[in-house]
Amino acid sequence: MTIERVAIIGLGLLGGSIGLAVQKHLPGVATAGYDADPDVRARARERGLTAVVADRPVEAVEKADLVILCVPVGAMGEAARAIAPALGEDTIVSDVGSSKESTYSALSEALPHHHVIPAHPVAGTEESGPDAGFASLFHRRWCIVTPPEGADPAKVAALVTFWEDLGALVETMDAGHHDRVLAVTSHIPHLIAYTIVGTASDLEQVTRSEVIKFSAGGFRDFTRIAASDPTMWRDVFLNNREAVLEMLDRFLTDLALMREAIRAEDGETMFDWFTRTRAIRRGIVAIGQDDARPDFGRKDHD
Amino acid sequence: MTIERVAIIGLGLLGGSIGLAVQKHLPGVATAGYDADPDVRARARERGLTAVVADRPVEAVEKADLVILCVPVGAMGEAARAIAPALGEDTIVSDVGSSKESTYSALSEALPHHHVIPAHPVAGTEESGPDAGFASLFHRRWCIVTPPEGADPAKVAALVTFWEDLGALVETMDAGHHDRVLAVTSHIPHLIAYTIVGTASDLEQVTRSEVIKFSAGGFRDFTRIAASDPTMWRDVFLNNREAVLEMLDRFLTDLALMREAIRAEDGETMFDWFTRTRAIRRGIVAIGQDDARPDFGRKDHD
Ligand SMILES: NC(=O)c1ccc[n+]([C@@H]2O[C@H](COP(=O)([O-])OP(=O)(O)OC[C@H]3O[C@@H](n4cnc5c(N)ncnc54)[C@H](OP(=O)(O)O)[C@@H]3O)[C@@H](O)[C@H]2O)c1
Ligand SMILES: NC(=O)c1ccc[n+]([C@@H]2O[C@H](COP(=O)([O-])OP(=O)(O)OC[C@H]3O[C@@H](n4cnc5c(N)ncnc54)[C@H](OP(=O)(O)O)[C@@H]3O)[C@@H](O)[C@H]2O)c1
């Protein structure tokens, strides 16, 4: 099948970026969008995030070959119910939610007779809203597609091609495995960052302005991810609860080991641990998912 | 007093950057350096990190008005003893160590009759060694000077001016307070990052290559700081043990709260916490210690 019309529900960072990327990379494909918030729709029209911004969800999805839900994972079911009446029989319904088992449940429950094929582009920033999106967000970033059992192979292939056309690298896996992988590579890092930034802002002996001033020692990298959207992240933790708790407990066990090494002044354990972790960093730089310039190539030193 | 000759012991990231910065910003000031490692000395000569690279520590510090020890905090005492015989009566002995109470003890014990004024430039990258340094490392970054009680005010002023001449913003505080502030803004973030990167590389259900591939979801920001030098960081944790354990326990208490909120599906607690942490981020961007470009202005999307 070929995709000629794409509809995007939710015109924030992800939805807006998809809209801009389609218009850039697939100029022959028609785009329509909808967002629950009238202010977001107005801004989306100004920025031209999609060619058409509809005032009702059913209008946006009419005749679409592919609908992508770009709302917080807790809002997927509601967003799906709102478009159900206008969906074509053959339409692919996909999404960009950060957890995949719960998203699939919500979508397939709301749309039992449609072709639901969830996906998750592993690309983002700490910004959100209709001003945050940009066309190159997915370029050279991974997009994980999680086809449910029995999914139509032609439709899965069309969705994979769509993401590749936007510049992404695509991998397919099952939803449960996705949720474990992302718990480690994304959800736990966000939980830790949110926590430590909160801890730092509540100390009596160290002021908030000191924390801010001297953040260049490492802390500021945590504050960036702890500035991410609270609704999105609350929903992620509520919807990927088991995998997050499982990975969190692994982390807590290891942190207790490190704590004990410091308490016992066991330099060797620390040295060995710190040496091992460098290999992972090298792997990330080697495959181009980050770069080795000092300070990520921040230019503000000069 | 005016500083006309500077000697640098340890020609890695910090020592090399100071040498290059002095030659750039204070071209009238003579620079000499020494490093325990002959390969580092050879590379330091090639890069011209200091005008003279001596083969013995005593040669490097002869006639220096200011000596800066740029070695791991665990090596401060040894490095100080090695230069003791050649230090002038009036020489300022300073350092760049990441913990300050322990450094002051080590230096004042090794050099009881000299002017020890510790300092810590809060600027760094995850790189180390003689190739890592660059002249602008300190530009617009804070340098914390921790003058001991009874320090000669003229000498403290000279050291402050020196750092300002290299482009740094200077703040003075006592060593104990420094150690608490840095435990929060630097040492705990590094400990957490090292730990989670270790956890992630040991999972059975998620492969190392998956962790590396999908790191753009947040994890890669942790791997950067977890690629820092193991010797340096072992020494930091051994030498700022009490403040690190104190702050770590605060963090663990808060993390237990967040864990419980996830377990109990308490979305409100999460939402409130995640909303609060955004304010800290805005403070850091506002004072120019980071910038708000997506992905720190990484250019690899394009
Ligand atoms: N941000 C990231 O880094 C990232 C990365 C990968 C995947 N994701 C996933 O992408 C999805 C969207 O995230 P985002 O960062 O793009 O969030 P965002 O910028 O906040 O955009 C979401 C938009 O959806 C709207 N919305 C909420 N409920 C809706 C509904 N029922 N119908 C129509 N519109 C609705 C929101 O309006 P209101 O503001 O009025 O609620 C908002 O404008 C989430 O599922 C998230 O997990 C995010
Ligand atoms: N990296 C940062 O981000 C950062 C930021 C602020 C402050 N600091 C502090 O700066 C200091 C230096 O760190 P760095 O990152 O510059 O480390 P680095 O790049 O590893 O450089 C340290 C150099 O000192 C040498 N050395 C070790 N013991 C010595 C001795 N007794 N006499 C002479 N040279 C000796 C080392 O040689 P070998 O390799 O042979 O041991 C190495 O070449 C540490 O105290 C650290 O806490 C670091």
Automatic annotation (TrEMBL), chains A, B:
Q: Which reaction does it catalyse?
A: prephenate + NAD(+) = 3-(4-hydroxyphenyl)pyruvate + CO2 + NADH
Q: Which GO terms describe its molecular function?
A: NAD+ binding; prephenate dehydrogenase (NAD+) activity; prephenate dehydrogenase (NADP+) activity
Annotated pathway = Amino-acid biosynthesis; L-tyrosine biosynthesis; (4-hydroxyphenyl)pyruvate from prephenate (NAD(+) route): step 1/1
Keywords in alphabetical order, please: Amino-acid biosynthesis, Aromatic amino acid biosynthesis, NAD, Oxidoreductase, Tyrosine biosynthesis
Q: Which residues form the Prephenate/arogenate dehydrogenase domain?
A: 4-292
Q: Which GO terms describe its biological process?
A: tyrosine biosynthetic process
Protein known as = prephenate dehydrogenase
**What is the species listed in this Swiss-Prot or TrEMBL entry?**
Aurantiacibacter xanthus
